[in-house]
Design brief:
Number of domains: 4
Keywords: ATP-binding, DNA damage, DNA recombination, DNA repair, DNA-binding, Helicase, Hydrolase, Isomerase, Nucleotide-binding
InterPro entries: ATP-dep_DNA_helicase_RecG, DEAD/DEAH_box_helicase_dom, Helicase_ATP-bd, Helicase_C-like, NA-bd_OB-fold, P-loop_NTPase, RecG/Mfd, RecG_dom3_C
EC number: 5.6.2.4
Structural class: alpha/beta
GO biological process, one term: DNA recombination
CATH topology of the largest domain: Rossmann fold
Oligomer: single chain
Largest sheet: 7 strands, parallel
Shape: globular
Family: Belongs to the helicase family. RecG subfamily.
Strand order of the largest sheet: 11-12-10-13-14-9-15
CATH superfamily of the largest domain: P-loop containing nucleotide triphosphate hydrolases
Strand content: 15-25%
CATH architecture of the largest domain: 3-Layer(aba) Sandwich
Amino acid sequence: MDLQSSIAELKGLGPKSAEKFHKINIYTIEDLLLYYPFRYEDFKSKSVFELADGEKAVITGTVVTPANVQYYGYKRNRLSFKMKQGETVINVSFFNQPYLQDKIAAGSQLAVFGKWQALKSAVTGIKILAEAADDMQPVYRLVQGITQNALVKAIKSAFSADAHKWLPENLPQVLLDKYRLLGRSQATAAMHFPKDLAQYRQALRRIKFEELFYFQMNLQLLKAADKAESSGIAVKYDEKRLEQKFAELPFSLTEAQKNSLSEILADMKSGRHMNRLLQGDVGSGKTVIASLAMYAAYTAGWQSALMVPTEILAEQHYESLSALFPDLSIAILTSGMKAAVKRTVLSAIASGSVNMVVGTHALIQEAVTYHRLGLVITDEQHRFGVRQRRLFREKGANPDVLMMTATPIPRTLAITAFGEMDVSTIDELPAGRKPVVTRWVKHSELDTVFSWIRSELKKAAQVYVISPLIEESESLDLKNAVALHEELSAYFAEDAKVALLHGRLKNDEKDSIMQDFKNKKIQILVSTTVIEVGVNVPDATIMLIMDADRFGLSQLHQLRGRVGRGDKQSYAILVANPKTDSGKERMQIMTQTNDGFLLAEADLKLRGAGEIFGTRQSGLPEFQVADIVEDFNILEEARRVAARIVSDENWRQDKRWASILPHLDQKDSFD
């Protein structure tokens, strides 16, 4: 048995049990060891005088009354008794757990884990412990069919076999010494079963550094490869033709757009390899800047490629490029195309008869050969990682690279996170664009909102409705969306066709629904947060977000950006009854500004860094334990060390770094 052995080989598990863990991508013993908890329950007994109202804790005491069970409906009951801690009498209640009555005897010592209610001097019990523990209990992210107990049992089985000791150290001793980091085996053990908070913090510090260090090593190696392979392409574009194209545009560019385009064109002409991030708020006009850069490449005889996450976005960009440049040969390439059509497109790309190509990941597949690729643009950078950039580079003679994101990111963070890319920012909206009117309403006002929506539907409006977000539970997200879809279908039965979009649908089903919505066959689209960034539905003028206080400001702003894409007045309605001051403040800020950069700063102050960029709608890479904003100091140190190592010509020969090489030679895991 070794790290790559199936978890089915562990004591207490078998093939059937092991199969359940495949849902959370645990196949091998190594996968199991490296599946870290996202939080811990502290099961050390506490005095009630130490507890804040609503805090979960273990409370020990002496049972002073017998347990009594009251029934009040089908399978609904409450078990209650009193216990004493010192001189304090505590009321204890357990709901729908009548079988605990046998474990509670007057005069006995008891340890109850539950939620403390200070005003009532009461605890709502969650479980009874055999005894108060002195350790912290891990809590893991799960899916349906796997319980915390089953996962903890499997991990304990791996540790009892000393499997964690098989993990090879993947950081050189010089770094372990320099930063006083725990060894990998010790850190992994402490991540799952820390003796105390201090040991957990040391383990977390080690694992965070490991993640961020390897991420930075991959970025620095890619940067070094860019320099080593060639200095880049000098795209000698035709300035007169480009100026003529500016004059033909049906709108004028904003100053921010002009500045960003100037920076991009200067890079392209310089002969230095362009590696630039173009960030701009929702609706700021990034796509037209990218299109003009592609046109500049065309005037110099180079092909350009625009890669987007989904087929529907590829079709949208293909249509807009075709409208903007009717005289050019523009192709679309997606994995869903029929084989015969795809062969024709591939042949045209290879021969050079295609000037611009738009597509999904199909653009970097082995079968694609470019005639003269000079510019690569990726839309929504978060979907494409270091590996995709490397593959694109290999498709041409080190083509210029431009990445676009609608997530406002502080400049210093963008530079560090994206490997010292140059950053261009579009921080103003095009003239004439009507700001989305945002309103915050309580749940009790929904009838009024629905009545107003009915009147807007008669004016040919289309509506997005986002169902509430439940953390760590995709199945509950879906259940909420289904219930909301049924409710709205009944309410608007005579006024509109209501459809449902969620993450469990196949990609072609999602695309079909979005296409029907775009073509006005659907008037109300109920969705979880899977609505694609950038999909343009000009007649969608209302965005209704249920339980909006569950979302961060950046995510609310991204969702709001799905409307207001035409010339009609658009509205975002936030339905929320926030219980916290920060929740109320978030709702108020959303109604006061449409500036995504201001909102990103406010999010940072209100919620702390950890939650802002942790969503899939973010322009930043995701990690298992590290947080790219909260752990910025570690990220910056990792970048500094990685840059120093990679810049040293002899680093590969140095024995201190030998342990790094096998990990870097693998496909990088931060795509």
